[in-house]
Write a structure and sequence with these properties.
This protein is 47% helix and 0% strand. The protein contains three helices and no strands. Helix 1 packs antiparallel against helix 2 and helix 1 packs across helix 3. The protein is globular, with a radius of gyration of 13 Å.
C-alpha cells in the first residue's frame, strides 16, 4: 500500500530518474520533458514503470495521459494523487 507522498518528496526521486536520460541538462520542474528531444518512444514506458515501482502504486489506463507525464510537476502531482487516493477493497 502506498503511503501519502508529498510533491516535495516525489520531485527529487523523479529528477534523479530523469537525469539518466538528460545528461548534463538540468530539467526545470515545469519544462516539457518530451519537447527537450532527449527522450525516445520507449522512455514513456520506462517512466511509467519507474513511477509504479518507486512509489508502489499502479498507473491505471485513465492515468496514461501525456499531461500526467510531461513535466516533473505533473508526474509529482500524479504520484501524490495516486498515493492519497482511497484504496478500494
Amino acid at each position: 500500500m502506498p503511503h501519502d507522498t508529498t510533491i516535495e518528496e516525489a520531485k527529487p526521486k523523479i529528477r534523479e530518474f530523469l537525469a539518466r536520460f538528460f545528461g548534463d541538462h538540468r530539467i526545470a520542474d515545469d519544462e516539457d520533458i518530451f519537447a527537450t528531444g532527449f527522450v525516445n518512444s520507449l522512455f514513456i514506458m520506462q517512466l511509467v514503470l519507474f513511477v509504479e515501482s518507486e512509489f508502489a502504486l499502479t498507473v491505471e489506463d485513465e492515468d496514461l495521459e501525456i499531461e500526467n507525464f510531461s513535466t516533473v510537476d505533473a508526474v509529482a502531482a500524479l504520484v501524490t494523487r495516486k498515493c492519497s487516493a482511497p484504496v478500494s477493497s
